[in-house]
Amino acid sequence: MALFEARGVTKRFGGLTALNGVDFALERGIVSIIGPNGAGKTTLFNVITGELAPTGGSIMLEGEPIEGLAPHAVARRGISRSFQRNNLFPKLAVLENLRLAAAAGLPGTWDVLGRVERRRAPLDRAREVAEVVGLSARLTEPAGLLSYGEQRQLEVGVALATAPRLLLLDEPTAGMSPEETQRMTRMLEALPRDVTLLIIEHDMDVVGSLADRVTVLHYGEVLTEGTFAEVKADPRVYEVYLGSA
Fold this sequence. Notes:
The protein has helices at 41-48, 71-77, 94-104, 116-132, 148-161, 178-189, 204-210, 228-232, 235-242, and strands spanning 4-13, 16-26, 30-34, 56-61, 64-65, 79-82, 166-170, 196-200, 213-218, 221-226. By secondary structure, the protein is of the alpha/beta class. Helix 6 (178-189) links the parallel strand 7 (166-170) and strand 8.
C-alpha cells in the first residue's frame, strides 16, 4: 500500500481549473514536484493539507481518505508542511517555537494537572529536532534574530516537531544564498528516513541531489514522472521550462 495516493484530484476556482485530474502515489523517500509558475503545485499542497477542499477526486493517507478534512485534522493524521514564507513566532526562542509545535502533536500536553512526563515530552522532542535541523546551539535565540537560512531550517524543524509521516516543503531553498542552499540540502538529505518528503522546488541542482522521484505538473496536470534522469531527458519537460524553437 502506498503511503499517500491522489486519484483524479481536481480543483476549480470558478472558470479556472487549477488542478485537472491529478494522479500520483508516494512511497517512502523524497519526491519533488516541479513545474512552471501557475502549474498548480502550491494549490495541490493546499488541497492535500486541507487549506482548500478539492472539487473532485480522492486523497488517501495509508488507505484512509483525508480529502475535505480541516487542516488540523489532516495534521493529526500525520501530514505536516512548511510554507514559502516563514511562519514562526519571531519573539519566541528557537526552543519555544519547537516546543509549541511538539506539544500540538501530543495528547494531554496542555493539561496543567497532568503528569510531568506529558509536559517534559515536548521539550525533549524540541531538543531532538533542533539537533536534526542544526540549531541545537541556538536554542535560546529569538527566532526573529536568526539568519534567513536558519529561519528556514527552523521552519522545517517546526514541521518535523509534530512527528509527521509525510512532510510537505514548499520551496525550502527559495531566496537562499548558495551556501545556505547547500546547508539546507545537506540537512534534508540527513533527515530520518521514516519521514517521507514531498518537495516543491525550482532549483534543479537541489532536485537532482535530493529526489528519488520527480513529478512534473503543467497546467494542473501530471505531465510526466520518474527519476530525475528520466524527467530531465524528457523533451516535453524542456519545452515546458525553456520553450521550443
